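Subject: Sanity check before I submit

Could someone independently write out the structure tokens for this chain? I want to compare against mine line by line before I put it in a report. The sequence has 156 residues.
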Amino acid sequence: MLAKTAPLRLSPATDFMNRRTLLALVLGFAAILTTLHLAAAPLAANQKIKLPDGRIVKVLSVSKVESSKGVMALMVRYQTNLSIEEHKALGDEVDDVWKFAVKDVERDGFTEAIITPNEVHKGIFLTSNRMLNFIFEKSADGKWTRLSRTEFMARQ
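---
Independent answer below. Compare away.
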């Protein structure tokens, strides 16, 4: 004959800790899935990107283009609030946008990419805006570098 035992009772603190741990695991898992989904989502026109410094830029277009060397590249055009003359700040912003674009570039197998910030349109009846191309190139060892103007012109 088997001995009867009393059911095991957990203290209210243990029950609370178990619920809190379960909630933390569920929220953590949801955060990981969200991060993976965002990292996998390709850039698209009219998409807004939040940069690490908190600024938001709007993607104008994402397209495949052929360079003058006959090499296919991915071109990402976006709207910036910076002026084209703000070279340092614009370069930093392009590097931040590049962190989003590089996933698409590598997924599609490109070895070159062009990130093009476009100023906000100015004017009422006759509008104008300026843009500047920043070229990224993948080296033989798989490392991406942004070409300077002189490097780019020398390779043409």
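---
OP: Matches mine. For the report I'm noting this point. The first helix runs from residue 12 to 40.
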